[in-house]
From TrEMBL:
A GO cellular component annotation in the UniProt record: cytoplasm
UniProt xrefs under Gene3D superfamilies: 2.40.128.20
Protein name (record): Fatty acid-binding protein, liver
Chief location bin: cytoplasm
GO biological process: fatty acid transport
Similarity comment: family membership: Belongs to the calycin superfamily. Fatty-acid binding protein (FABP) family.
Annotated localization: Cytoplasm
Domain observations: Forms a beta-barrel structure that accommodates hydrophobic ligands in its interior.
Keywords in alphabetical order: Cytoplasm, Lipid-binding, Transport
Functional summary from the UniProt entry: Binds free fatty acids and their coenzyme A derivatives, bilirubin, and some other small molecules in the cytoplasm. Involved in intracellular lipid transport.
GO molecular function, one term: fatty acid binding
């Protein structure tokens, strides 16, 4: 299955606690918690372009599986990391945050971010 497509956030768990843990200011957490972000994924073999739009904030990341890339974090910082694929899961660790993005079926992506014992889970459904 290809990850390519446009997905809209359907539900999320642990947003506030996770964003506080990564150091996002309270006013941005308050603004962002009800916004339904849209993720656009373009997959071409092992090369990916991911664009996540949350309100006016746009996060762009481009990477090739197994190669070090500079990736933008949720707080706007840049870190070098290697994204790997394990079956239908994309895995990466940015700073202390572990991210697993799983293509559950043709229309559903589940992204789980973990920082220590804090887990932030996002479920997005295909819209295009």
């Amino acid at each position: 299955m290809s990850f390519s497509g446009k997905y809209q956030l359907e539900s999320q768990e642990g947003f506030v606690e996770f964003m506080k843990a990564v150091g996002l200011p309270d006013d941005l957490i308050e603004k962002g918690k009800d916004i339904k972000s849209v993720s656009e994924i373009e997959q071409n073999g092992d090369h990916f372009k991911v664009t996540v739009t949350t309100g006016t904030k746009v996060l762009n990341n481009t990477f090739t599986l197994g190669q070090e890339s500079e990736l933008e974090t949720l707080t706007g910082g840049k870190v070098k990391a290697v994204v790997t694929k394990d079956g239908n899961k994309l895995k990466v660790t940015l700073d202390k945050v572990s991210s697993v993005t799983e293509l559950v079926d043709a229309d559903t992506i589940v992204n789980t971010l973990t920082l220590g014992s804090i887990v932030y889970k996002r479920v997005s459904k295909r819209v295009a």
